[in-house]
Specification:
Number of domains: 1
Low-confidence stretches: none
Strand content: 25-35%
Radius of gyration: 25 Å
Distance between the termini: 60 Å
Mean pLDDT: 82
Number of helices: 2
Shape: elongated
Helix content: under 10%
Order of helices and strands: EEEEEEEHH
Amino acid sequence: MNSKQKHIPVRLAGLGDGVHELLFTVSPAEIDLPAEFQQELAVRIDLDKTHSQAALHVFVQTAAVYPCDRCLEPVTIPVDTDFRLVYAHDNSAEHGEDESEIRQIDNNDPVIDVSEDVRDAALLCIPMRRICGEDENGEPTCKDAIPPEHNAETQRTNDPRWDKLKSLNLDQ
């Protein structure tokens, strides 16, 4: 991602104190999301600004298309998430709060970019196991049958390569 170009710029300069709603539409390529993200991202930011800090509540909506881990058919995975960020002007963070939750912003930079945070949040919404789904009995709802060579239930459970190891007497 080009660090000089801000893809989701939140301009703090010129905004009065209070609550503001900002809306953005961003293409996945702009914020370096993988090719599986084919839909544009809808980003809504609820910004609560005071003279010393800005609290952001960021909402992200999009979808990604991955192959099913069972049948390899395309599965659309909805991404609908939100997170909070707090930005404080230099030396204005209150003492006693966890400083890892507060990001410092320079008084000379009137724009903050939340594109990296949006990218990270979208990627974290993608599950490790991507499947078409399961019914109430736990059976796959894949459109096509699972090929026998990929189905663990139909694969051979006794592997002759382990027979030599099974014959070892390890209780000595």
